[in-house]
Amino acid sequence: MKFGVVVFPGSNCDQDAVDALELMDQEVVKLWHKDHDLQGCDFIILPGGFSYGDYLRTGSVARFSPIMNEVIAHANRGGYLMGICNGFQVLAEARLVPGVLLRNANQQYICKNIYLSPQSPDALLTAGLDRPAYKIPMAHGEGRFFADADTLKSLNDNGQVLFRYCDETGAITDAANPNGSLENIAGITNKGKNVFGMMPHPERAADPALGNMDGRLILDQILKTVLV
Ligand SMILES: NC(=O)CC[C@H](N)C(=O)O
């Protein structure tokens, strides 16, 4: 499988994603935002960062980058696409996943480890995750997931919620919700379950040198499931 990591002006987690994938022995190339060619990549990653300085809203300018035409076409063909943090914000702005990411409830940028409970038993990214909680770093100012009642119902009914914020035992509580996201939602997938968006950063917990490999366990799912 060949991975492509898109680089927007202001991306700052692109190299982290490349490093994590290379540690997994994967072929990976960077894709410049002005390009029109996905270089034959099977799995596209929109990385974290501050694309276009987060003006006007996070992800709202990057969504119109030239390469997004090809990224959207890839997703619409059923191709795999994952947005991490700022990448999730770009996916939401491009309407590739439902809902929006609002300013964190406390109006602060939050950078800390949190715990995620895998939710969807049939989504590729979470189907094989069997632990109650995974410790993953979060680092964002606009990560409060919100959707209207109908959208929320369809996300729940279709098994499109990938992760909810939880405590270290896996309990999904208000106290474990760092940013005020609706129903503790930290990650979702689209109806076709080929587009994944999540606010926390698995690629920042995927190198033994960092002392936390929980993110690698999540990224490993991509390999297992896509090869099925
Ligand atoms: N780590 C990131 O991708 C940050 C996302 C975005 N710039 C925010 O603060 O919400």
UniProtKB/TrEMBL annotation:
Catalytic reaction(s) noted: N(2)-formyl-N(1)-(5-phospho-beta-D-ribosyl)glycinamide + L-glutamine + ATP + H2O = 2-formamido-N(1)-(5-O-phospho-beta-D-ribosyl)acetamidine + L-glutamate + ADP + phosphate + H(+); L-glutamine + H2O = L-glutamate + NH4(+)
Keywords, alphabetical: ATP-binding, Cytoplasm, Glutamine amidotransferase, Hydrolase, Ligase, Nucleotide-binding, Purine biosynthesis
Pfam families: GATase_5
Keyword Iron listed: no
CDD domains noted in UniProt: GATase1_FGAR_AT (cd01740)
Keyword Hydrolase listed: yes
EC number: 6.3.5.3, 3.5.1.2
Compartment(s) of residence: Cytoplasm
Pathway field: Purine metabolism; IMP biosynthesis via de novo pathway; 5-amino-1-(5-phospho-D-ribosyl)imidazole from N(2)-formyl-N(1)-(5-phospho-D-ribosyl)glycinamide: step 1/2
Role summary: Part of the phosphoribosylformylglycinamidine synthase complex involved in the purines biosynthetic pathway. Catalyzes the ATP-dependent conversion of formylglycinamide ribonucleotide (FGAR) and glutamine to yield formylglycinamidine ribonucleotide (FGAM) and glutamate. The FGAM synthase complex is composed of three subunits. PurQ produces an ammonia molecule by converting glutamine to glutamate. PurL transfers the ammonia molecule to FGAR to form FGAM in an ATP-dependent manner.
Subunit field text: Part of the FGAM synthase complex composed of 1 PurL, 1 PurQ and 2 PurS subunits.
Name of this chain's protein: Phosphoribosylformylglycinamidine synthase subunit PurQ
Lineage of source species: Bacteria, Pseudomonadati, Bacteroidota, Cytophagia, Cytophagales
